[in-house]
Amino acid sequence: MGKRTDIHKVLIIGSGPIIIGQACEFDYSGTQACKALRQLGYEIVLVNSNPATIMTDPGIADVTYIEPLNVERMEEIIAKERPDAILPNLGGQSGLNLCSELSKLGILDKYNVKVIGVQVDAIERGEDRIEFKHTMDSLGIEMARSEVAYSVDEALAIADKLGYPVVLRPAYTMGGAGGGLVYNVEELKTVCARGLQASLVGQVLVEESILGWEELELEVVRDSKNNMITVCFIENIDPLGVHTGDSFCSAPMLTISEDVQKELQRQAYKIVEAIEVIGGTNVQFAHDPKSGRIIVIEINPRTSRSSALASKATGFPIALVSAMLASGLNLDEIPCGKYGTLDRYVPDGDYVVIKFARWAFEKFKGVEDKLGTQMRAVGEVMSIGKTYKEAFQKAIRSLEIGRYGLGWAKDFHEKSKEELLKMLVVPTSERQFILYEALRKGATVDELFELTKIKHYFLEQMKELVEEEEEILKYKGQELPGEVLRQAKLDGFSDKYLSQILGVEEEKIRSQRIAMGMEEGWEGVHVSGTKDSAYYYSSYHIKDESPVSENKNKIMILGGGPNRIGQGIEFDYCCVHAALALKKAGFETIIVNCNPETVSTDYDTSDKLYFEPLTMEDVLSIYKKEKPLGVIAQFGGQTPLNLSADLEKHGVKILGTSPAVIDMAEDRDQFRAMMDKLEIPMPESGMAVDVEEALKIADQIGYPVMVRPSYVLGGRGMEVVYDPESMKSYMAAAVGVTPDRPILIDRFLRHAMECEADAISDGTHAYVPAVMEHIELAGIHSGDSACIIPSANISEENLKTIKEYTKKIAEEMHVRGLMNMQYAIEDGKVYVLEANPRASRTVPLVSKVCNIAMVPLATEIITSEFTHEPSPLLNLTEKKIPHYGVKEAVFPFNMFPEVDPLLGPEMRSTGEVLGLAKTVGEAYYKAQEATKSKLPLEGTVLISVSDRDKGEVVEVARLFQDAGFSIMATGHTQKLLEESGIEAQKVFKMSEGRPNIYDMITNGKVQLVVNTPKGTNEDGVDDSYVRKACIKSRVPYMTTMAAARMSAMGIAQVKKQESKEVLSLQELHSHIGK
Fold first, then answer.
1. How many other CB atoms sit within 10 Å of the CB of residue 117?
2. Helix (H) or strand (E) holding 611
3. pLDDT tens digit string along 302-324?
4. Which residues contact 688 (CB under 8 A, 6 or more apart)?
5. Distance separating the N- and C-terminal Cα atoms of the chain
6. At what angle do helices 616-626 and 506-515 cross, to 10 degrees?
């Protein structure tokens, strides 16, 4: 049929900020789609609110809008751009839901926009629980017995009929949001109420529990001629009851018979044909190994987390092909070097792929580490090996949780068999590590199967690993016999793990292994739809026959590994940009990474991709084989930086800023000495190894102080301590404090404004595109604070000082490449907080708002020793930027209802959005709107603040009053406002009577809440219920006075604005003055 000629301009909806359940895999699919459709000659308009992704860079689509993803904004963009078609199935659940709403409201018809890829009625057949059930019944495909409820009472009646436990699933949600497994009437009432609210259409499915069955997934691609292929068969090793996003999975299926796989495929094809999706669809099944019953759980008529995994596991670029099919091409028209054309594709790789999730439970106090039907993972890794054992152990060392094998995790090995079995009753993120120690303590495979319902095969394999490890342990402190070492390497034991359990140096094991000729070999995974592209994985089972180019000009980039809080997609953005810039400069590029969700692990981002763990053993082997000019480690976040010093010791050339400089910036004493030399002020501080020392230092500096461990990213373990008692308890809880990794203690700057500057430095000059001003005051992690760029409230003089200090430090440290500086301004004086001589999470933000290609410029500097080009900084001048960007963080608190949603020095956000406008007020308003908590333009504001904020409350209340809001306030606050002539209605706190704050929020009497947490020394009850109530009732809330003030200003600004013009990123950039 060929591509459609009736459409020329296509609108692609992105998936918005990264949240649990919707991460950067949609970014990967959206970027691929832009690439495919532009190659076919279409003009692309992209809308996405996420600044961190490469997708919203001005070069990926023809026109880019960084705007909130909602119907009003979409209509403005459609009215302005007049696209012919809209492609919704590559933007995750956000994209699908938005397209459904635009269609229902008649907006698509009004502007004559066609939907391509997946039809609106197909979204309903796939997503609406009732419609989907009708479709399945008509096809004779079995589903779990279930009924739909529109109220809690209906749900109770249905659950009675089906018998507990039952599963609740709200319609049109993602990552299992709002749903869950309930065992009794009370639980059902709570979860069902939450689910009805989370659902777009107030509809919840109540279904029989199929806990403990096998969960199996097929990734199917269909074209307009009804050709269908199965890209990948995925077996979830964790049985049903754990969300697929948290499940440990393998591809291909390792324990499922041919017959069952054929039957699954037959059913999947019937379903996809009936729903008429064009492109990729993920179909999830449950199979009861006892009775043989197969039921379909759900389908996702879009690219999903599993399709990113399936793409990387098989080499079939699902999103790219889906976009081509949406344009009218068919599978038999897309050529492929391996199969001729894609309609003949079959998954036939002779290797095993393992996916393992990465969680962030340690970031959320009070959250139980427990896995269920609601997704909890924040990232994942994928590993490829020749056998299950090899791939499994590679996955563990890819995770970067400080474990290089399965044994000796935490204190599990000290527990008795009985204690370990008790810990296995409920699935947790530690389950595989507990199983390992339980086997070591003599638990039988049958016992473990009864508890976990993990199949015998997987438990047997693990048991063999435990037995092998026990054999290895007999040689503690000595050299392993050759045969034992050879077998250990074949089964995936890493050099590092062997060195840990034997108590010898890793170096010894490496040299013994190399002397025996035991070295990794690499094999390619062919990329479907290309002539002969491939990416590579290592194994000790193969002879190395993979090609190596003779090109001397090769550079290796180390990626960021799995997504996690504190190290997200921003670092992937930097790695991708570096690869593209190097290609342009004529270098051959090599990327090493193990994250299946990202653009950096797309086969054509680099010239050669190694899908490998980022550990010494793996990186050194690749380095030895490829012999590049050097390695770039400064773009992948903390992951490659932690490796760089060791790599350098082994003769690897690290390009750009040297590892010694990076260590110096981390070493407080060295850094302070340098600041003293440059006469740059820092807050008073000290380092402590034990409690006595800590108390002494804090006493000298004066409370409050900020305490934190050294060498961490994302503010892990940072706290503000107000008195000696709290200091004692912090030190008691601090783990892994050693003389070379002490606790850092700084004076806490109380009413200081924090700001940061990203700079590009060539070792002698530094260029600062703009200074970012944090809205929240010092004490809140920079990754969680909203920030304004370029700054709006910093004096000219302070700005000059900040730029001057940044340049001085960059020059003194000989930074080559990117660096990030954090400052605080207290009473008009600028203090340096820290220097990070590497890419930071604000690089994409600065690049987009200021229209400056930071990473390509840094890459040019890093490679200038080979290209001998002059520094690109010489012709950069200060630019006047006529617009403002406000970045706002997005938090997973709705997934963790038991956590108090407060901000502090430890980072907890999973993603971010950007609001762009001519004024700071409007930009802030748009950023709030993009996080899905739109600020109200009228109504009532409830104010209840702690004693230390009473000084600012009058000004904030007056701003809200001037904007036309009526005000409610609690006790002291209300008195204070009345005295200042501001009318405020009094409302009770929880402990004072009814109706209280909670009632007001829950009954929808309040449109906005300003509630700052009380200090540790104020008496009275816990006030976290106020903030939790806001999340539950979806009322926007502010927990800092700074954010409250900005909100009031933003609301006032938006109310008085006449014109509502939307501008694309390209238009905004054209207005930037020279």
1. 28
2. strand 608-611
3. 777 788 899 999 999 999 999 99
4. 694, 697, 731, 742, 743, 745
5. 49
6. 40
